[in-house]
Amino acid sequence: MIQAARIINEQKATVIVEHLAYDPLDESYSTDIFTKAKSPEDFSKAYEVKRHVYDYVFTDSTNERNFVQELDTSTEVVVYAKLPRSFFIPTPVGDYNPDWAIAFQEGAVKHVYFVAETKGSMSSMDLRKIEECKIVCARKFFVKITSDQVKYDVVDSYSKLMELVK
Q1: Pairing between strand 77-82 and 113-118?
Q2: 51 pLDDT band (50/70/90 cuts)?
Q3: Between 131 and which of 3, 63, 69, 127 could a Cys-Cys bridge form, CB atoms 3.0 to 4.6 Å apart?
Q4: Of residues 101, 79, 84, the one with CA closest to residue 32
Q5: CB distance 130 to 12 below 8 Å
Q6: pLDDT at 37 over 70
Q7: Among 45, 52, 103, 110, which residue's Cα sits nearest to residue 78?
Q8: Confidence (pTM)
Q9: Counting Cβ atoms within 10 Å, is residue 124 exposed (0-12), middle (13-18) or buried (19+)?
Q10: Does residue 48 have a pLDDT over 80?
Q11: Per-residue confidence at 125, pLDDT binned at 50, 70, 90?
Q12: Residue 11 pLDDT > 90, yes or no?
């Protein structure tokens, strides 16, 4: 019975995500999401950076750390931020928090602003179903609220990011 209930709930979520639509509101996030007091972090996990909105970035994985190292030394990147957990997109399968907001040098790339989700693998076989559903919702969300200058996508490396923006 538990297995049957789980399968039914998964199918319901899939149908909801397929027919999901986002509508823009007049609400916005204030810049204080970047300056609110944060819980104490273990600085042994921090990476000192120059182009981030903070002096240090706390990464969740080796893949993210490698990504940050390349963002921080890229001549095309003006500034970037690891998005705080308080910034999220509501989805039918739970809140979704993209990883990065990146601003590029205007004229150097086709998308000046980029919101990225970093994953260790680009294979959908390696992503959990719930993650896949949240990413589908995020794609719909960003299509609805952004212009041609803003792009959202999933990348596994800085080189993949540059393929998408050049």
Answers
A1: unpaired
A2: very high
A3: 127
A4: 84
A5: no
A6: no
A7: 103
A8: 0.72
A9: exposed
A10: yes
A11: very low
A12: no
Q: Domain residue spans in the chain? A: 44-165
Helix (H, G, I), strand (E, B) or coil at 89: strand
Nearest to 142 by CA among 9, 12, 20: 20
- Give me the architecture of the 44-165 domain, per CATH: 3-Layer(aba) Sandwich (3.40)
Q: How far apart are CA 107 and CA 66, in angstroms?
A: 25
Give which of 57, 51, 58, 54 is closest to 73, Cα–Cα. 51
Contacts of 10 (CB under 8 A, 6+ apart): 129
Find residue 89's DSSP bridge partners.
96
Residue 90 CA, distance from chain mean position: 13
Strand, helix or coil at 161? Answer: helix
Do residues 132 and 119 make contact, with C-beta atoms less than 8 angstroms apart?
no
Q: How far is residue 70 CA from its own chain's centroid?
A: 17
**With 0-12 CB in 10 A as exposed, 13-18 as middle and 19+ as buried, what is 21?**
exposed
Q: How far apart are CA 67 and CA 21, in angstroms?
A: 31
Q: Where are the beta strands (DSSP E) in the chain?
A: 46-48, 56-58, 77-82, 100-104, 113-118, 150-155
